[in-house]
Every structure is written in C-alpha cells, then in structure tokens.
Specification:
Oligomer: heterodimer
Largest sheet of chain A: 6 strands, mixed
Number of helices of chain B: 18
Shape of chain B: elongated
Low-confidence stretches of chain B: 376-402, 538-592, 691-719
Largest interface: A-B, 39 and 28 residues
Radius of gyration of chain A: 23 Å
Number of helices of chain A: 10
Low-confidence stretches of chain A: 1-8, 11-34
Structural class of chain A: alpha/beta
C-alpha cells in the first residue's frame, strides 16, 4: 500500500509539511555520525593499551614493539548506524487540544515524523511503535527512504483513544528491541511517575539511550479555567468531574508541579533526557532548541 | 420580640432569590474533554469538602443579606430585657441640682443648669403621659408635676440655694416615692458632679443611702446621669477675691473706702469694669486694667440715710473693644452683696464715779475719747497709708472726701440724775457706770427699766469705790434678779500686774484681737480688779439667776487685799470662799445661761463678762476704765476694743456674718409686728409670712458654734426683735419694706462650696453611682437608650444593620478567598 493510496492529498500535504519541517531541523544537525561503544576494526584510531592475555595477536602494534620493546595493542572506534525507535502515545489523553490549537497527538505525530525524516536522512534506521494500553503498531527500524512513508502511515492510521499503560507497554517493547539504540518516548506521560521511570530504567539497563519528549498542552500546565466545568475524561467514557475550576486551579497546579518534579528527578537520576514540549511551540523550533542543547552537552 | 414595621419583614422572603439562583445553576456546567484527569481527580478529592463548605457558606451569606435587610427595616424589638410595660405610668423623682456651681458655662449649652433643664424636659417627654413627676431641687423646692406640665415646673426653678446635698435630696425623693401609688418608680439624678460635694464622708454614706433606697417597696431604680462629663479643658474665670470696707458701720454721709480685689483664672481680659451699687442703685462704675491676672481698686461709698443697707459689688470683663471676645465661664463669683449698717451716732451716757475738771482726771475721760476719737482729733487718716504696696498705685487713690466719723455721741450724766436727764421717749443706747460707788435708788430703778424693758445696754466698770454688796442687793432687773452677770467680790491686786489671756478671744467683737489685730492687747497689765464669780445655784441669793458653773481659777500671784500701794501679800477676806480650781480649758467653766466670761486675765480670772436681763444687755468689767488699776486705757487697742464692744452690744449685729444661700436671713432689729414685704434679688416682691421662727433662731445659734462668744450671740438674738426670711435661694441684696418709711436691706452670699465648679473625675463618679446602687449613664442619650430598653425592650435594628454590612463585606471576601485558593 503506497502512501498515495493511504493518504488523501490533504494528508500528503500534511506529511510533506512534516518533512519540510524536519529538513529545516536537520540542516543544523547533520554533523554527527554515531559512534559505537564496541572497539574493533575501523578507520579511526582510538588508543594503545598494554597487551593482556586473550588479546588477538593481530591486534598487536609491532611498530610500537619495535620502538619500545613493549607489547601494545591498537584499538579503533567502531562506527555504526543508529537504530532509533519512536514510541508514540496514542492514548485518549493525547487527543486534548486547546481552543484554536492542535492536539497533543497531532503534535506528537509531527515530532515523530520530523525525527524520522531527520534520522533517515542521516542513514540511520528509524522504527515506530504506537501504543495506548498495549502496543498497537510497530515498525522495526529501517533506513530506507521509503520507510518514512510507512512510518507516517502508521502514525496517521492510529487515532488517539483509550487508556494508557505505559509501563506495561514499555516492558513488552523491551523484548522486541535486541540491539541497543535510541528510544524516543513521545507521550504526555500522564502516568504514575515512579512507575514510568521504573519502566524506562529497563531500557537504560539494556544500554539503550532513552529520550522522553513530554508533549503538553498549555492548558494542562496553566489550568486557566474559571467557572463550573464538567471535565470529561478523554481516556475513559462516562468518567467526569464537575468542579468549580477556579477553586481548585491552585491545587491542580501544585499536583501537576509535583508530578513534573518527580519525572525530572527520575530522568535525571538515570541519565534520561526529559524534554517538555508544549503544543503552542512550533515543532521545528522546539526540536532545534533541544537538539542544539544536546549537541552542546555532547 | 416584636416588629415595629412588621410588613417589611416579608422582605426576608427575598432570601429565596439567591437560593433559587444557586439551585438553578447548581447543575449547569460547561463540558470540557480533558486528559489530565489524574491531577484533577487528586485535587477534587482533597478540596471537595472544603469547597462544599465554602459554597454552602457563600449561599448562606447570600441568603442572609436580604433577610438582614428586611429585618432591619422591620425594626425588631427584643422584649426579654423589658422590666415594665412601656406605656405604663411611672413615678419619677428628678433630683435637679440647681446649686451655683451649675452656672458654669459648658461647651455645648449655655451652662450646666441649661443642660440639666434640657435633660429634665427630655426625660419627661420620654415617659408615659399619666406619669407622676416630682422635681426636687437642691434649694429645697419640691414640685409635683406631670410630663405635660413639666415646662411650667421647670420655669420655677432657678440657680440658687445651697450646695448639692445628695443625701437630703434622696431622702426627700424616697419620701415622695413611698407615697406613690405607681409600682414603677425611678429616681434620676441630674447634677454637674461638682468635686466639692464628693467628700470621703459623702462616699462613705452612699452604701447607707443604698440601703434606704432598697428598703422602699417596690424599690425605685436610681439613674445617675452624667450630664457634663469632665467639663471643658480650659476655664476662664474673673472673680471677686476680696471686698473690704474700712468700716462695717458708718454714719449718714460718711465716705467709707472699700478695697476691692478681683482675680482672673486662666487667660485674662485687658480691662475689667467694677460696678458698686448701694441698695440696687449704681453709685460707682469704674474700668480698671487687669495686671498680673488681678484687679485692685479702692472705691468710696457714701450712704446718706441711717438704716440697714446693702452694698453690691460686681465685676465683669469690660466691653472695651481692646478686651476682645472674653467671656466669663463662671458668673456666680462675679458679684457679692454686703450688708452695711448706717446709723445715727449711738448715744452713750457716761456716769462718772469720780468726776473732775482736769483732763483725763475723771473716771470716764479715757472712755469718752475712745468712743469719740475724732471729736478732738480731726480726721487725717489716709485709708491707703497702712499698705505701702498700694500707696504708690495711682489707680487705688481713694476719694478725698473719705473721712472717718464718730460713731458714738457721749453724754456725761451726773451721778444720781439718770432719770431726770432722760427725756420722754428718748432713751440712750448705752449707759456706762464707771467706778460708781452706790447708784441712787432712783437710778437703780431707772436702770432696771432701761435694761430689762427698754433693751438698753448697761456697762459697769469696777473700781476702788464700788460697793459690791450694794450692787448685788439694789441693782436688780424687773424680775428682781441681779443685773450684774456675776457678783463682784473682793479687791484683788498684783504688784507685777497680770496680762490678758489672749488665747480664747472668740467673742465676735473681740475676735479681731485674736486674728488680724493679734498682739494688740499684749503688754496690757492689770494691777487691781474686783473678783468676779459665776453665780451658783447653791447660793440662795443667786438661785434665781445663776446656773451651775465653776468658779474661776484663782491666780497664784494675786492676793485678796485692798489695793494698797506696796502691799505684796494679804490675808484672804473673811468669809470669802475658796472654790476648787476650774479647768481653764473647759468652756463650761466660763459660761452660764445668763453670764459669759468673754475676756480673762492670766490664770483665768474673769475680766469681762456679758449677761442679759430681760431684753437688755449688761457688760461687766472687773477693772477700771481709767488708768487707776490698769494700763488698758493707755493702749492703742483700747479705742477699737471699746468701739467694737459697744457697737456690737448697741446694734447687736455682725455685718460680716452674711448668710449663705439657703440659710435663713435674720434681720435683727426689725419690728416683727409690722407687715413686711421682701424683694429678693430677682425683683419679685413677696409678703413676709413667718415673722418669728424659734427654730430658725435656734439654728442660727447652733451655726455660730459652741463657743463663749457664740453663746453670747445667741443670747443677743433671743433678746432682740427680728424678722426672718427663709427663702434665700438667691444670692444678692434683699429689700425689706414695711410701708414707705421702714426699709432695710439684707444680703445673701453664694455658698463657698459652690464657688468651686471643678468636676470630680469620672472614676469617682462611677464609684459613687456604684456605691449608691445606681446605674451610671455616661450621657443623657445613654440613659434614654437604657431606659427605653428597660421599658420597651431593646431595639436591635442597629445590630442587624451592622450584621448586614458585615455580610455584604464577607460575601466578596469568601468569593475572593475561594478564587485565591483556586
């Protein structure tokens, strides 16, 4: 099924727009080649080290032996392609959109497409997984250009709905990703923060690099509501709360702040990048800012 | 609880408006699909109960606002505190202080009395129509009135009378209320609470008064209404400090200088005007500068006719524009009236026991000079010469016509010719027997009628020639009692001489020698005298006249012998009794009913005794009136001593004794049988009803004090015809008139206590009210409010209005709090 068949012209324009935005980001990002932690035979010398028993004889640098009369082994950096997996939250909470704004799900798709476009342009493999209470779609990482359309189709095909079970989903996904790589979780992270952190640490233990892109709507941060409002749960039908919004705004903001703090602390503790993206910020701008920071920190 | 505007209470149903709005909007919600339910649910769990309470509270406040508004407009009255039916007539006794301290100006009203009158009107207007009001004033008035007639009663009350006597007034009020048929009784005290009335004794008596109040059944409620508060902070007062005439007595046409001093409390005006009136007519009007907060001047006063007159001195801030707007805060001390007796010279007959032609050789020469000092020595005395501090003050220059005059006219009558000298209908005022050995029988009879019937004054001087037995036997009054207050005894002498005992000079005409002229008698010595012994009932000869009394103490340095020159000792006279020594400190030792020793020698020997016989007076000296036995006639004090003594005995008045307002005015010397009309200071003539009131006379005697002099004064009073005017609430001159010829003037002064208008502090006022068991009301409005509560119940619309305002403030506060918490 080609992308033309999958998407209407409007959809294709939207995807094209996503590519365009990703391209703009990439132009400031393309300097990097991904280095492998495995030391082997490559073109880039890393270091000499003393010979130990078990080292291959062929790795001995005889020129150094001739000069110093000591046995050293040459080590090289291993260069490899990055295998990135974009894990996109498609739960009901991602459907929220403020008046006149785009939904978090739409924003998440733009972020995912941008990253996919960017990585495929770097010859890196990109896969995608969508989930709510379980993994709904999964595309393993590929680096072919045509794989981008497949990713977009998967993202587009899965509308937001249902509850969220991130910890369970991440547990299942860990079994599918054997090779260490980059995991990008694109979600609002409206789950129990300690549980979420615990699930992410599974990937860290498997030597994956984990990046959490938390997509939030400004309303969810500021809670600007006043008056008597019936809040209807996007994840669970027939679930609602009727409140005087003004009366509990402060308490909401405090609860939300504590959740964010827990997330920040947990991610920091396990060297997980935690990036908050609000839907009122253009995706290109948000990603370029983050990536610039990431490059400085590298 | 009752509602004065019951229909308006229906407005309370408006509380349904916010309730309905609340119910209608309770289920109206804006629906919003929301993803972050996780955080919202936690918050809702925590805040739901608090928000429900806040919402409920807000709903209650919103419902309360129309309810409170409606109730406040409906004027609810809570009747739980009501003690009586509001429209029930009451017996109200209003104790109205109209003493002179009430004349002090206050800030808001003309004076304190005006404030009290307005309070009385207001209180009378607040009680039921059929109520009974008793108005009791401090000047003794008791006016029965009603709320409808209170104005007429108040018109009859003016400032005057004596000091505010709460105990007396409460007693009168309780007496009135006890007779009342109304069950609801109340006493309202309207006073300025002048500090002078709040003595420790008064405060100590209040619990007793409280018991008297509670003893009345049913007991009245006593309300202590604080009309004035603490009074004004600044006080400007121009007051007469002293008014002193050079002489209390004068003869017609004599110019008498009056020294007047006024002082200013607080800020002073630049000038003051002094007005002197004689019998109501202006005689002098002067403007004097105010220096060092004082005004001093000397004003000559002349009275043309003999009689009893009044000199009225008044001072006021001058109307001179340079004085500016200066108002006196306390007018009662701006004026004072003084009685002045002007009489034709008093005729004194001198009967000389040893007449002679040489100067000062006869027995009565010294006395004649003392009584008529200006007959031989022309008047040259400058009235200011005694005070060098005033002599250089040109403003104090006295009138050049101010001259002293002789108050006595002396006539020497030969021995044994008293009866023949006296012309028909013309009697002397005083007869003096100076060392007359044995008056003739005709003279003795004449003297008996002169003293006992005609009310004359007999003065007897002792001397070497006097036959004591003859005097005792033949000189008797119409009732055959001895005329002499004390029988003469033997001759006593002292070579060294005895001085006068100056420690007990209380007899009015001699009091000056114990006061201003103290020491004037010092140095006077007596070498000889006749013994004088009070009469005792054990002596049959004295039984008819005497009362029990102790004989005088015999001085140790004296001897009972003839005054032989050079003799130092002598044996006691045979038959002379030696009475036990009397206690010189015991006043009773010198008094009897008819004889009073008013002057003594050292050691207690009587020197001068005063007695009465019939309507007359007898003065008995133990020594001579020439220099034979004593140096007294040679002393300067002899002139004022004899003048004051005879003046007092002849006219029998003490002009300095001006009764205070509220005390009876006794006009001695006025014929009580005449029809007298009295014109008080307010100018309204009134007929004199009680012409002779023994009780009043007794009261005067008591007021004079239990001293020897006072008793003599009492004796004088009982002997002299007098009229008494009891209604003396007004200070100032009183005119007594009987026909066109008989006119006399008396004077009443403001009580000294009322000349101090300072107000006692509020703590003491409250303490007094507490001890009395009275409810203290800090203002008239407070009393009216409390009284209204007592009778009608408590109006609570003010509190509801306060609650309404509070609710209107609380409602947005709750909203803000809810929003702030949100």
């Amino acid at each position: 099924m080609s992308i033309n068949e999958l998407l209407s012209p409007a959809d294709r324009d939207r995807i094209a727009g996503l590519e365009l935005m990703a391209r703009q980001v990439v132009e400031g990002f393309c300097s990097g080649q991904h280095r492998s932690p495995h030391k082997g035979y490559s073109v880039e010398f890393k270091e000499h080290r003393p010979y130990v028993r078990g080292d291959e004889i062929r790795s001995i640098d005889w020129k150094v032996f001739g000069k110093t009369d000591r046995i050293y082994v040459r080590e090289f950096e291993e260069e490899t392609n990055l295998k990135a997996t974009l894990i996109v939250d498609c739960s009901g909470s991602m459907a929220y959109a403020r008046t006149g704004g785009i939904s978090k799900h739409r924003y998440a798709m733009q972020v995912a497409a941008s990253l996919a476009y960017l990585m495929i342009g770097q010859q890196d493999g990109v896969g995608v997984a969508t989930f709510d209470t379980q993994i709904r779609d999964f595309l393993p990482p590929r680096s072919r250009h045509t794989h981008l359309q497949a990713i977009c189709s998967v993202l587009e095909r899965r509308p937001p709905g249902g509850e969220t079970e991130i910890s369970q989903v991440l547990g299942g996904l860990a079994k599918k990703l054997h090779r260490r790589g980059l995991l990008v979780l694109i979600s609002d992270c409206f789950a129990d923060a300690p549980t979420l952190i615990r699930a992410l640490t599974h990937f860290r233990h498997a030597k994956h690099e984990v990046l959490v892109l938390q997509i939030l709507d400004p309303d969810e941060v500021e809670f600007p509501f006043r008056g008597r409002i019936r809040f209807r749960n996007l994840e669970l039908a027939d679930d609602h709360e009727e409140v005087d919004a003004a009366s509990l705004a402060a308490a909401y903001r405090e609860s939300f702040r504590q959740h964010q703090q827990q997330l920040r602390d947990g991610c920091g503790r396990f060297r997980i990048d935690h990036v908050v993206l609000t839907t009122d910020t253009p995706v290109a701008e948000a990603l370029s800012g983050y990536l610039a920071t990431r490059r400085r920190m590298a | 609880m009752t509602l004065l505007n019951g229909l308006l209470a229906l407005g309370a149903l408006a509380f349904t408006i916010p309730l309905v709005i609340h119910l209608l909007f309770r289920n109206r919600f804006e629906t919003l699909d929301w993803g972050a339910m996780r955080f919202l649910r936690n918050v809702v769990q925590q805040n739901r109960r608090r928000m429900q309470l806040l919402n409920l509270l807000l709903l209650l406040v919103r419902c309360l606002i129309p309810i409170l508004l409606a109730l406040a407009l409906a004027r609810p009255v809570i009747t739980w505190w009501r003690q009586t039916r509001g429209d029930e007539p009451v017996a109200l006794a209003m104790i109205l202080d109209n003493s002179y301290s009430m004349a002090a100006r206050t800030g808001e009203q003309a004076n304190r009395f005006t404030a009290a009158l307005n309070a009385a009107r207001t209180i009378a207007g607040s009680i039921a129509r059929g109520s009974e009001i008793t108005l009791l004033t401090s000047d003794g008035q008791t006016l029965l009135t009603s709320p409808a007639e209170i104005e007429a009663a108040l018109q009859r009350v003016r400032i005057g009378g004596g000091p505010f006597d709460l105990e007396s007034l409460l007693g009168r009020a309780l007496g009135r209320l006890s007779d009342s048929s109304y069950a609801s009784r109340q006493i309202a005290i309207l006073s300025d609470n002048a500090a002078v009335g709040f003595t420790q004794a008064m405060l100590d008596n209040l619990p007793g008064l409280r018991e008297r109040v509670t003893a009345v059944t049913p007991a009245p409620d006593v309300a202590w209404i604080d009309l004035i508060g603490d009074g004004p902070t600044t006080f400007r007062n121009l007051r007469l400090h002293s008014v002193e005439p050079d002489s209390q007595h004068a003869v017609p046409g004599q110019v008498v200088p009056w020294r007047i001093e006024a002082r200013v409390d607080g800020p002073a005006p630049k000038t003051a005007e002094i007005v002197v009136r004689v019998n109501g007519a202006v005689q002098q009007r002067r403007k004097e500068p105010v220096r060092d907060n004082a005004v001093r001047t000397v004003v000559p006063v002349t009275i043309a006719k003999a009689g009893r007159h009044v000199v009225d001195v008044a001072i006021a801030s001058s109307t001179d524009p340079t004085s500016g707007d200066w108002a006196d805060d306390f007018p009662p001390d701006d004026s004072a009236a003084f009685p002045v007796t002007v009489f034709d010279p008093i005729e004194v007959w001198l009967v000389d026991g040893h007449p002679g032609n040489r100067p000062l050789a006869s027995e009565t020469d010294y006395l004649a000079i003392a009584l008529s000092p200006f007959m031989t020595s022309p008047p040259a005395k400058d009235p200011l010469s005694d005070d060098p501090s005033l002599a250089n003050d040109p403003s104090l220059a006295a009138d050049e016509t101010a001259k002293p005059a002789n108050l006595f006219r002396t006539v020497k009558v030969p021995f044994g010719r008293l009866a023949t000298t006296q012309r028909e209908g013309e009697w002397p005022e005083v007869v003096v027997l100076a060392d007359v050995a044995r008056p003739s029988v005709a003279d003795a009879k004449w003297l008996a009628e002169f003293v006992s019937v005609r009310g004359g004054t007999l003065v007897v001087f002792a001397g070497p020639s006097v036959d004591p037995a003859w005097y005792e036997q033949n000189l008797r009054g119409k009732d055959n009692t001895p005329l002499l207050p004390m029988p003469y005894g033997t001759v006593q002498n002292s070579e060294a001489g005895l001085a006068i005992d100056e420690t007990r000079l209380t007899y009015p005409p001699l009091a000056i020698f114990g006061g201003d002229e103290k020491g004037a008698l010092t140095g006077t010595t007596f070498h000889g005298w006749l013994e004088m012994r009070p009469r005792t009932p054990t002596n049959p000869a004295d039984a008819a006249k005497a009362t029990p009394a102790l004989p005088p103490q015999t001085p140790p340095a004296t001897t009972t012998a003839a005054p032989t020159p050079g003799a130092t000792t002598a044996a006691p006279t045979p038959g002379a009794t030696t009475p036990p020594p009397a206690d010189p400190n015991d006043p009773a030792a010198s008094e009897s009913e008819t004889a009073t020793t008013v002057l003594r020698l050292e050691g207690g020997q009587p020197l001068l005794a005063v007695g009465s016989s019939g309507t007359g007076q007898v003065v008995q000296f133990a020594s001579t009136c020439d220099a034979t036995w004593t140096t007294l006639p040679l002393r300067p004090a002899f002139v004022p001593l004899m003048q004051r003594l005879l003046l007092h005995l002849a006219i029998r008045s003490d002009a300095r004794n001006v009764p205070a307002a509220g005390e009876p005015l006794v006009m001695r010397g006025l014929e009580p049988e005449l029809t007298w009309t009295v014109t008080p200071p307010d100018g309204t003539p009134r007929a004199l009803e009680a012409k002779r009131d023994p009780r009043v006379n007794a009261a005067i005697g008591n007021n004079a004090g239990a001293t020897a002099g006072a008793t003599a004064a009492q004796g004088d009073l009982m002997a002299v015809p007098a009229v008494t005017w009891a209604d003396t609430s007004q200070a100032g001159p009183y005119r007594f008139e009987a026909g066109s010829d008989e006119i006399a003037w008396g004077a009443i002064r403001v009580p000294d206590a009322d000349l101090k208008p300072g107000i006692v502090d509020q703590r003491t006022r409250r303490l007094a009210a507490q001890r009395l068991g009275a409810t203290f009301h800090p203002s008239l409005d407070a009393f009216l409010g409390d009284d209204s509560n007592r009778r009608f119940g408590r109006g609570i619309w003010k509190y509801l209005l306060i609650a309404l305002i509070a609710a209107m403030v609380i409602e947005p506060l709750i909203q803000q709090y809810r929003s702030r918490r949100g």
